[in-house]
Structure formats: C-alpha cells, structure tokens
Amino acid sequence: MTILTKAPHLRQDFAASIVVFLVALPLCVGVAVASGVPAELGLVTGIVGGIVAGLLPGSSLQVSGPAAGLTVLVFEAVREHGLPALGVIVLAAGLLQLAMGALKLGRWFRAISVSVVEGMLAGIGLVIIAGQLYAAAGLKAPAAGLDKITGLPEAAAKAAGSSSSLASLAIGAGTIAVIVLWQRLPRKMRAVPGALAAVVLATVATLVLSLPVATVEVKGLLDAVQLPGLGSFGELASLSVIGTVVAFTLIASAESLFSAAAVDRLHDGPRTQYDKELMAQGAGNTVCGLLGALPMTAVIVRSSANVRAGARTKASRVLHGVWLLLFAALLPGALALIPLPALAGILVHAGWKLVPLRGIVSLWREHRGEALILVVTALAIVSVNMFEGVLIGLALSVGKAAWEASHIRLEVIDKGAGPVQAYLSGNATFLRLPKILDSLEALPQDRPIELDLSGLHHLDHACRTALESWVERHSTAGTEPVRVMTPTP
C-alpha cells in the first residue's frame, strides 16, 4: 500500500503547506520585529502554531501563528513589563484558554458584537500603520497610539532632511507597491506570495544599491528563546499584568474563533468545533509561553491562503510548521539580510486591510448604531489603549442592545367622551422610563383614565414603582381613580 493510498490528499496538502510557509515567513518575522522582540520568536510562534495547534482537533484548515492584531498589545506588554515577563503572560493566557475550552465557553465568543471586533481590528490597524510609518523611515515611534498619529507631520519633516530616512522610505514604499501590484500579475507568477516577493526584491535592492537602511538583528534560534524564570512568575501578582493576561486571552480567542467562522465559509469540509479549537489555541499559547515566544492566534491571511491553495486536511498546516522549523534551524543568517523598512511596509499593508472603510460606509447606511460602535471602539483603542478600548466597545454594544430590547409603545385613544384609554406594549425598563412618564403626565387630569398594561412583555421594578406613583398622583380627590389592567400571568 503506497503512502498516497494511506493519505489520499497528501499531494494537495504538501503543495498547500509550501504556499502557507511562504506567506507565513515574512509575516512571522515582521510581527516579531514590530512587537519589539527578536525576529526568531516570531518564527517560534509560527512553528508552534503549525505543529502543536495544527495537530489538535478544532478547525482542520485554520492556520495559527503570530498575528498583526496582537502586535500593539505585545509591544505595550514588553515595554511595560520587559521581555522576560512576556513568556509568563502568554503562558497564563494559554492556560486560561484551556480552562475556557474545557468549560465549553468557546461558542459564547460568537455572541460578541461583530462591530466591536471590527472596531478592535480597525483601531489596531490604525496604530500599526502609524507606528510602522516611523519604522519605514528609520525613526523611533512614540509609545502612545495617539502620539504616533499626531507626531507624523514632525516625523515627515525630519525624514525629508535625511538621506538615510529617504532611502529607507523608498524601500518601504516599494514593498507596499509590489504587494499591491502583485495581485494584477498572471496567476502563475502569483503562486509566489506577494509579501515574500516584496521582501526578496527589497533585500536585493538594498544589497545591490548598498542602501543605508537597517536590517533584522539575528540572535539565533536558541539564543532568542528564553524560558520563563521562577522570578518572572511573581509578575502575576501585579494587577496590570493580570489585565494584560485577560486582554491577551479575550482578544486572541475572539480573533481565532471569528477567523474560524470565516474559514468555514471558504470550504465545504468539516465545520469548526469551537470549544476544541479554543483548547487547541490554549495548548499552543501554553507552549509559546514556556518558550518565551509571542502569543499565537489563528490568522485569516494564512488560513485563507491554505484553503485557496487546495489544502484538504490538517497535514498542510502541520507541514508549514515543519518548513518554518527547518528554515529557522538551517538558514538563520538569511534573516539578517532583510531590511527593516520592507517588514514595515508589509505591516502597513496588513494594517490597512484591518480597517474596513467600505464596510463602515455600508454599515452606516443600514445600521448607524453599529457603525458608531465600530468607530468609537477604534478611536478608543488609538487614544487610550487596547484593553480599555475593547471594554468601551463592549459597553456600548451592551448598552445599545439593552436600549433596543426596551422598545415600548404607548397608544392613547381619546373618543372625546368617556375614559381616555392608554395602552402600553413592549418592554418597560428604566431606560425608557422618562418617555413613559412624559407621555402619561400629558394625559388630561380631569378625565377618567384606563391604563392597559396587558401588552407588556416585561415590566421592571423601576417602571412598576414609577407607574404606581403616577397612578396615585393622578387619582387625587375629586378625580376618578385610574383603572389599571395588568398583564395576565
């Protein structure tokens, strides 16, 4: 019995794994550099995402690794707590994901408002674009997201007066141009991913023209890996570190499970088992934490490339992890040739794709409340930080849902003679209490009133108390008492 008989889809999976490897390689390195950690740690996370998470059940065609969506959060964590604490944070987040998967909480992530998730990604995209524009010019970016944006005019003026900055910007802009134009080339040429082609061309141009641009610093795979020391676990006593762990967990889980839903729409194979996928992500992040690497999440770019390349089973994503491992072990010196502005260009393009400009316009036409939540979430992430921005978005989403759920209608029928009839229907909650009282207090004081509450689906304590007080006030001496018809239990 041949190998192909035992694994009938091996040929398709092998070819797909090569494509995913070529897509993942520049992204792994670029995300690591943008996160302020050694480039090799991005490869470590890609390897773990392929081999560890790839072998586990959940979503058969989804590919995991370091994601641009977590770049901002990782950079802030490393800046505030140091690189040694990163492993502990990622480890704790992985264990928390495992616990959530075991408790079958994975499906609940589908209840998160899509507007909040898209707003989160848009905010991250804006911060990535602003930060990587500095990197493309060979300049140091400010720490805060808002400072990155407001400082761009000054940075542009500084870059215009520096030949090295202009050369660096040329490489970054050329990288973006190649990625964009690559999609218009014949299909055979597009077999090589645009990001990889852009990095190779940028590297060749830098070497041939001897351009004065910075390149990736290489430490070596074993030197870059830092196992968390016992002293690092003491960081978990800090509230800020615990907040970072929660942020890593929620954002990585939401991004992974939303990506899984998107990947399911691209193929007709087995559907994602959300709780098992959450545990697979948790297992991968636990291993990444033990190795002191970047956090791992499912990445839609790699996953869609995997599906479109013809992958049929999880073998493709496992093999892509093997190719990353072989590259990191056998060709580590190749990383030192990659110019940093080329990686910045890749991330600027990736950040731009996170901002749903067309989606915001169409959403504003159909659901203005959802569009507002998206925009406010994005702006909050830029102006405050990732964790608090997401919390603001979630609070707005919950508030909007509560407001819409408290829909109530008051119909007043006055036939000119006899009692005035007031019908309340819907959900009477404290959110609509001012509207209810304004309408009832506008009823004539010298006429008998019939208040029909039989159409209410819900009457909360605040509204019940307020209605009873209004009935008591209206039923004064000399006025016929208000007749109240309550809902039938």
From TrEMBL:
Entry keywords, A to Z: Membrane, Transmembrane, Transmembrane helix
Single GO cellular component term: membrane
Residues annotated as transmembrane: 14-34, 41-63, 83-103, 115-139, 159-182, 194-216, 236-263, 322-352, 372-399
Primary localization: membrane
Domain SLC26A/SulP transporter: 10-377
Compartmental location: Membrane
Matches recorded under PANTHER family: SULFATE TRANSPORTER
Protein name: Sulfate transporter
Organism annotation: Streptomyces lacrimifluminis
